[in-house]
């Protein structure tokens, strides 16, 4: 049987590596938010492409227009030069570290600060507001519940 907690630990490592290697804003809040998004969007770390052919790919289920937005932001601002601007969108399917870096840059573009790492309700609301948006069908509770089910070890 697959141990999803071990997969979550592996995803956490990819996120931490992405933040460190790419010199991205790093905090436990950022790590938990990205884990929360990945846990929900990938169906508990079980797929990297919804329905086998959906437009969103990778653990974070990012769509190509969002990916292009992030690359354009990086090119326009010159921020975070360690984040690759040349990898193709499809790399999100196989490279969790790159996907995490792109996801973190996307979230960085919003001026609202991240909630505290112990504020799971706040992180979930942030995920809903900025990742899923008001147009998406997920709820803040969906993000929080996925984090608790697939990631949470009961620690604050």
Attribute tags:
mainly alpha; two-stranded antiparallel ribbon; 2 strands; globular; 156 residues
Summarize the structure in short.
With about 160 residues, the chain is an all-alpha fold. It is built from six helices and two strands.
Description:
With 156 residues, the chain is mostly helical. It has one domain. A two-stranded antiparallel ribbon has the order 1-2. A hairpin with a 4-residue loop joins strand 1 and strand 2. Helix 1 packs across helix 2, helix 1 crosses helix 4 and helix 5 crosses helix 6. The protein is globular.
SS element count, helices: 6
Count of distinct strands? 2
* Count of individual domains: 1
Radius of gyration: 14 Å
Please summarize the sheet with the most strands: 2 strands, antiparallel
Structural class: mainly alpha
Basic shape: globular
- Indicate the proportion of strand residues: under 5%
Question: Overall pLDDT, averaged?
Answer: 92
Instruction: Write the element-wise H/E pattern from the N-terminal end onward.
Output: HHEEHHHH
How far do the termini sit from each other? 28 Å
- Biggest sheet strand order reads 1-2
Question: Uncertain runs with pLDDT below 50, 5 residues or more?
Answer: none
């Amino acid at each position: 049987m697959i141990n999803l907690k071990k997969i979550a630990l592996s995803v956490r490592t990819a996120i931490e590596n992405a933040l460190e290697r790419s010199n991205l804003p790093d905090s436990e809040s950022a790590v938990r938010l990205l884990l929360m998004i990945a846990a929900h969007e990938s169906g508990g770390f079980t797929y990297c492409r919804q329905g086998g052919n959906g437009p969103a790919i990778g653990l974070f289920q990012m769509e190509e227009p969002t990916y292009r937005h992030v690359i354009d932001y990086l090119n326009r601002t010159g921020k975070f030069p360690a984040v690759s601007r040349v990898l193709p969108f499809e790399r999100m399917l196989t490279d969790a570290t790159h996907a995490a870096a792109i996801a973190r840059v996307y979230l960085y573009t919003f001026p609202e600060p991240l909630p505290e790492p112990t504020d799971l309700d706040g992180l979930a609301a942030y995920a809903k507001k900025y990742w899923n948006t008001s147009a998406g069908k997920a709820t803040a509770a969906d993000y929080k519940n996925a984090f608790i089910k697939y990631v949470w070890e009961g620690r604050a």
